[in-house]
């Protein structure tokens, strides 16, 4: 029996240049989010074939209990595996909601699992890819939680628990998160530009693309560009349905589509 690799250690830091990618994140797919799920399947069928690479920068799922529960996401896996089978490179990063995604899930999708921060060549520049939550450094409480859930030993201990126990822990974490969010300002939960800038410089990157904040936009940070991918939500029932992605245009620039 192969030794279990903690998801935190399973991602690769080196990938070949991107030729014509589309970037998505924060879909928060779950069985109860049926409209968002259907939009994902439409996107996979009608949009992804026009691109060379599909890059998913975290929170593909609303929660992920471990790769041993992969049967619960069979339709999503099949859609990603089909994209891979027709020659699309599928690259997946873990988010804060699906930090336990591992090698088995990536293999089932024919995908490559990414490390938390990966620099890659694209549109003639170096782009730093990340979910982005590591840069929400003003939220000290969240950073402690993030460090715990990305600790390899913590992950292996969690994965050794019965699925029912993991579900219970996930529900408790979600309830606590929703409670604490109400007492935090938007600024506290956003990324800190200086930390994004430092990370970009450490990777010799010209551009940063991330998700997590649900604030799609492009920003100028001195000589660095910061692009935020749109989140997806078609199930809120509040008339605020939205989804989107970032793509390249003519191999020269980035564009947000919403």
UniProtKB/TrEMBL annotation:
Catalysed transformations (reactions): UDP-2-N,3-O-bis[(3R)-3-hydroxytetradecanoyl]-alpha-D-glucosamine + H2O = 2-N,3-O-bis[(3R)-3-hydroxytetradecanoyl]-alpha-D-glucosaminyl 1-phosphate + UMP + 2 H(+)
Residues annotated as binding Mn(2+) 1: 26, 28, 59, 214
Where Mn(2+) 2 is bound, by residue? Answer: 59, 96, 131, 212
Q: Which InterPro entries match?
A: Calcineurin-like_PHP, LpxH-like, Metallo-depent_PP-like, UDP-diacylglucosamine_Hdrlase
Top-rank taxon, per record: Bacteria
Q: Which positions are annotated as binding substrate? A: 96-97, 139, 177, 181, 184, 212
Q: Where does this protein act, in terms of pathway?
A: Glycolipid biosynthesis; lipid IV(A) biosynthesis; lipid IV(A) from (3R)-3-hydroxytetradecanoyl-[acyl-carrier-protein] and UDP-N-acetyl-alpha-D-glucosamine: step 4/6
The alphabetized UniProt keywords are: Cell inner membrane, Cell membrane, Hydrolase, Lipid A biosynthesis, Lipid biosynthesis, Lipid metabolism, Manganese, Membrane, Metal-binding
Q: Where does the record say this protein resides? A: Cell inner membrane
Cofactor binding note of this UniProt entry: Binds 2 Mn(2+) ions per subunit in a binuclear metal center.
Family stated for the protein in its record: Belongs to the LpxH family.
List the protein's name. Answer: UDP-2,3-diacylglucosamine hydrolase
What organism does this protein naturally occur in? Mesosutterella multiformis
Q: Print the organism lineage.
A: Bacteria, Pseudomonadati, Pseudomonadota, Betaproteobacteria, Burkholderiales
